[in-house]
Amino acid sequence: MDVLHVASEVFPYSRSGGLGDVLGALPAVLAAQGVRTTVLSPWYAGLSGEAREVWSGELPGVGPARIGERVEGGVRYLFLGLPDFDRPGLYHPDDVQRFCAFGRAALPALERVGAQPDVLHGHDWQSGLIVAHAHLAGLKTVFSIHNLQYQGRWNLGEARSWTGLPDWAFGIEGVEFFGDVNLMKAGLVFADQVTTVSPTYAREITTMQYGEGLDGLLVRLTLEGRLSGILNGLDQERWDPRTDPHIPTYGDLGGKAAATAALRAEFGLGDAPILGTVSRLADQKGMDLLIEALPELTERWNIVVLGGGDPLLTAALTGWAQHPRVAFAQGMNEALAHRIYAGADAFAMPSRFEPCGLSQMIALRYGTLPVVRETGGLVDTVPHDIGFRFAEATPEALSACCAQALVTFEAPAAWRERAERGMELDFSWDGPARHYIELYGRL
């Protein structure tokens, strides 16, 4: 079986968040389980690592294009180079137009290098147009929602000519959405099977609260047996406290104390327990709830935050960093992220919604107990008798849950027992990969 994954980012070549991490791990596990696996992603100007150019030329309706190739871990990585991607950074305000060009160019370019998949698996809205064109070409398709909030919308009158789709595809049963072209909807409408990254999120997005305006369509897909939730895994080699090059390594909680002491020293923190978080600073992630809860949290906890995003949240955390119990590092820093996961005692994820989330799985693997809101993949990965969960997206609920965690922290035997069981949980990609292989096989 030959499967082609299409995504806007793939670790370690390009990455802005969890999507890149998934594409960096899942294809290699599929390849190890016997699936011939190819990944197609844009050839960004700042691509990490070298790609060998294997084709260049003109594509009808698109213009100049080129394909680069790397083969690693049994996976063939293809990078599609277009003029629109010859600029620094991954994402830009004109991304709908850029990824329409990518979507139109993908299948003709793949033909030039002999890529003939049995199944095309697109990830998030940036691949939605490719899924539509693959369906029209007779390919079997899977489309995965990693975050329904981001949909790739643009005015229909302007974007219509960018897509290369036939006129009949622009009705309400096609890619039209309140006067816009919607590339997320294109993936949902044209895919043979739609998945999302946790079973709970698959149920949540069929409701008005979480459906982002597409809940009616998603209810229909569920009734037709075309929507399912497959929980993401974790790259357990990259995230392993026994071999992690960024921390004082440890195989059990006895060794974790050195990582905690190192984090405490790095930020000049006192003896209070450490509540860490590594996150985009965004409304989805509930970082405003954490900030509003800081007056109460800092009475009993040290707080360490790593992240970037919303300027207002960034400014608020920068101000709070003057507090002796608050440390804030702006942006993304891979090594520091590892030190926080390992050195914190507890890990906060007050998300308003969370399709799957990787941070809570990493924290558990490092013996750091998560404090999470009961939503999406956080429900599916944080057992209530190991981590700590709260229902309402309010600073008061977060504070109360942290207070509950502190009661357990002050009973060292109970805390240790929870942390040890958390470290034993299996978040490998082996199980999810088997579910995907079964799904491909059915198609």
Automatic annotation (TrEMBL):
Pathway: Glycan biosynthesis; glycogen biosynthesis. It catalyses: [(1->4)-alpha-D-glucosyl](n) + ADP-alpha-D-glucose = [(1->4)-alpha-D-glucosyl](n+1) + ADP + H(+). CDD domains: GT5_Glycogen_synthase_DULL1-like. Gene3D superfamilies: Glycogen Phosphorylase B (3.40.50.2000). Residues 3-218 form the Starch synthase catalytic domain. GO terms for molecular function: alpha-1,4-glucan glucosyltransferase (ADP-glucose donor) activity; alpha-1,4-glucan glucosyltransferase (UDP-glucose donor) activity. GO terms for biological process: glycogen biosynthetic process. Transmembrane segments: none annotated. Its EC number is 2.4.1.21. It is an enzyme of class 2 (transferase). It comes from the Bacteria. Keywords: Glycogen biosynthesis, Glycosyltransferase, Transferase. Residues 267-420 form the Glycosyl transferase family domain. Synthesizes alpha-1,4-glucan chains using ADP-glucose. HAMAP family: Glycogen_synth (MF_00484). Belongs to the glycosyltransferase 1 family. Bacterial/plant glycogen synthase subfamily. This is Glycogen synthase.
